Amino acid sequence: MDMNSFKETMGKVLKGCGCLSIGFFVLLLIIGIFADDEEKKDAEEETAQKTEQVEKKDSVIVNEPLEGDPYAELDDLIGLNSVKKEVRSLANFVKVQKQRETQGLKTAKVSYHLVFYGSPGTGKTTVARIVGRIYKDLGVLKKGHTVETDRGGLVAKYMGQTALKTDTVIQQALDGVLFIDEAYSLVPEGGNGQDYGQEAISTLLKRMEDYRDRLVVIIAGYKNEMQRFIDSNPGLQSRFNRYIDFPDYSGVELADIFKMYMKKNQYTLADDAEEFLKEQFEYAVAHKDRNFGNARFARNVFEKSIQSQANRLEGMTNLSKEQLTELTVDDLKGGFSARTNIGQE
Q1: What's the gap between Cα 245 and its chain centre?
Q2: DSSP state of 64
Q3: What pLDDT sits at residue 24?
Q4: What is the pTM of this model?
């Protein structure tokens, strides 16, 4: 029964019993209850719509710069020695050019935009955040924050919307770093006349010129695909001329990353588990494919290992601190047994 029918029926019933005044009050009360229900329903629908909008914006992540010394954080990263050297070299060059400028000397034209290429999980996003903070320390950027996105955050579904969508993300990144992961997906291999990736690229190139003193762009992805992407547009070639190669991690480095997660989360290894851990990571590296997750793989093995430990301890009471923190060979076997770990987030 809808609201109008309900009102009409209640009016007839109450009129018949001669209780119009009281009935009218009761009717208003009931109508109020229905109205509250309708308002609650509308509020729930509005909340659901807002939640959906937030989910659609997941391709854009804003990371405010952390406190602390970015150079020390760079040095503390496991592995990536060649990457650290390149970033340090860039920082040294910028620092000297800044000092020459203060002395009234000629300065070399510096492009702060970077191309990071390498496999998934090799630290590209982490280093991009550090670079933003280093640029802030050098006076290149005012804020040094990082806005991370990919094709989904830049390209819209319909003609004419991509430029606005891309520009919105760029505005968020001003005075910081815009990090575009898998940037090559803006130019699909084989080409597509209906694809709007080129519109995003055109908008990006224009804004890089408009905001050349306020915006640094770092693009990242697989080496061959990134080269194809750069070669697809002369504007990209002229603006991106500094490349940093992110090598895959070795088995020993992955074991160190695993132990880093252990330390952060207060876990330890059983005496006989250390060698097993290294052997398993060495095996994984030797048998990896193109989608191998590197540090992500190490993180996922850790998460699966502590889940395996929890299953092993299930039903036991009065557990000691050692029992709660120690990971055994069997726990590690559980961590490595899930093949879905490889190459997955």
Answers
A1: 20
A2: P
A3: 46
A4: 0.78
User: Distances from the Cα of 339 to the Cαs of 37, 190, 250, 297, 303, in angstroms?
Assistant: 49, 32, 19, 10, 13
Q: What is the mean pLDDT of residues 19-41?
A: 48
Phi and psi torsions of 141, nearest 5°: -125, 145
Token duo for residue 77: 């990263």
**Would you give the distance in Å from CA 86 to the centre of its chain?**
23
Report the SS3 class of residue 338. Answer: coil
Average pLDDT over residues 229-240: 93
177 bridge partner residues: 146, 216
Closest to 226 measured CA to CA, from 242, 207, 210? 242
At position 194, the amino acid (one-letter code) is Q
For the chain, the average pLDDT equals 85
Adjacency order of strands within the sheet including 215-221: 61-63, 146-149, 176-181, 215-221, 114-118, 243-246
262 and 327 in contact (C-beta within 8 Å)? yes
Helix (H, G, I), strand (E, B) or coil at 148: strand
- Six-digit token string for 173: 């990144």
What local confidence, expressed as pLDDT, does residue 67 receive? Answer: 87
Q: What share of the chain is helix, strand, coil (3-state, %, to 5)?
A: 60, 10, 30
Q: Which two tokens stand for residue 75?
A: 């040095």
Looking up tokens 């693009």, which residue turns up? Answer: 219
Return left, alpha or beta for 266; rule: phi > 0 is left, psi -120 to 50 is alpha, else beta.
left
- Measure the CA angle with vertex 132, ends 128 and 135; round to 5°: 130
* Per-residue CA distances from 258 to 254, 286, 300, 307 (Å): 6, 18, 9, 14
295 vs 193: which has the higher pLDDT: 295
